[in-house]
Amino acid sequence: MKIVAIYGSSRKNGNGAALVERAINNFADKNPEVNRYYLSEIDIKSCMGCFACRKKEMCVRKDDMSNLLQDIIESDFVIFSSPVYMYDATGSFRLMINRMYPMLGGEPGKYTKRYTHKKCMIIMTQGAPTIMFRGAGRIIKRIIKSFGFDVFGLVRMGFANERGAVEKNERVLRKIDNVCSKVIKKL
Ligand SMILES: Cc1cc2nc3c(=O)[nH]c(=O)nc-3n(C[C@H](O)[C@H](O)[C@H](O)COP(=O)(O)O)c2cc1C
Fold first, then answer.
1. For position 22, what pLDDT does the model report?
2. Is any atom of ligand 1 closer than 6 Å to the C-beta of 160?
3. Residues 61-75: b if buried by 16+ CB within 10 A, e if exposed
4. Does the structure show a pLDDT above 80 at 1?
5. Is the pLDDT of residue 123 over 90?
6. Which residue of 9, 44, 83, 86 lies most exposed, with the fewest beta carbons within 10 A?
7. Which residues are bridge partners to 7 per DSSP?
8. Best probe residue, ligand 1, of 84, 93, 155, 156 (max atoms within 8 Å of C-beta)
9. 108 pLDDT higher than 90
10. What is the distance between the alpha carbons of residues 187 and 106, in angstroms, rounded to a whole number?
11. Which class for 50: exposed (0-12), middle (13-18), buried (19 or more C-beta within 10 A)?
C-alpha cells in the first residue's frame, strides 16, 4: 500500500511528527511504501487563482507540489498533520491545501469532486487544551472532505508545546491506533 505522510510542523522531532510515525507503524504488516513530505523544507508556492486546473487537471505552477499531489492521488492513505498556529493550521499547510485545488473540477463556484472515498486521517497539535481552538481542526476537516476524502479520524493533542510531551499522552496514542485500525479494516 502507499502512504503519504504530510508534516505541517517545522519541528521534525515534535509531537505531531511523533504521532504521524505512530500512525505509520500501525501499517507495518502491510509493507507500506511511505512518502514523507516536510512542508517547511519543500517548495510550495502560492496558488495563483487562475482556475486552469478546473478545465484540465493540472497546475500551471511547477514546484514540489506536483509530486506531492501526484502521490496524494495515487495513495491508499494520507496522514495530514499540522500544529495550530494562530487559530489555524500552519501557513505552509494552508499553502498546500490551496494547491490541492486540482482535485476539484467544474465551473468556478460549482465544483465537482474528481476523486471520492480517498482515505485519510488528520492530526492536529496545539499548545492549549483540546477544548480550545476546535475551529481549526473543524475547518481543515471540512476542506479535506470537500476534496473527496473520507476522514477516518481527526486526532487532536493539547499541551503540545514541549517536545516529547506525546510520550506521556497514552490517550492520544490510543486514539491514533484506533483510527488506524478502522482504516486497516477498509483496505
Ligand atoms: C507562531 C505560533 C502560533 C501558535 N498559535 C497557537 C494557537 O493559536 N493555539 C494553540 O493552542 N497553540 C498555538 N501555538 C502552539 C503550537 O500549536 C504548539 O507548540 C504545537 O502544536 C506543537 O506541536 P509540534 O510539536 O507538532 O510542533 C502556536 C505556536 C507558534 C510557534
1. 98
2. yes
3. beebbeebbebbbeb
4. yes
5. yes
6. 86
7. 38, 81
8. 84
9. no
10. 30
11. exposed
User: Distance, CA 88 to ligand 1 centroid (Å)?
Assistant: 9
- Are 15 and 166 contacting, i.e. CB atoms less than 8 angstroms apart? yes
State the CB neighbour count (10 A cutoff) for residue 58. Answer: 12
Q: Are 164 and 181 in contact (CB under 8 A)?
A: no
Asked if residues 78 and 72 have their Cβ atoms less than 8 Å apart, the reply is: yes
Do you know the residue count of the chain? Answer: 187
Angle formed by the axes of helices 134-146 and 91-98, nearest 10° = 20
Distance 59 CA to ligand 1 centre (A): 31
Q: Which CATH number fits domain 2-185: 3.40.640.10, 3.40.50.360, 3.40.190.80, 3.40.50.740?
A: 3.40.50.360
For residue 64, pLDDT beyond 90:
yes
User: Whole-model pTM?
Assistant: 0.98
Regarding the beta carbon of 161 and ligand 1, being less than 6 Å apart is answered: yes
Query: Is the CB of 181 within 6 Å of ligand 1?
Result: no
Burial of 167 (0-12, 13-18, 19+ CB in 10 A): exposed
For 75, the 3-state DSSP assignment is coil
Domain map (residue ranges) of the chain:
2-185
CA–CA gap between residue 9 and residue 83 (Å, rounded): 6
The CA 126 to ligand 1 mean position distance, Å, reads 5
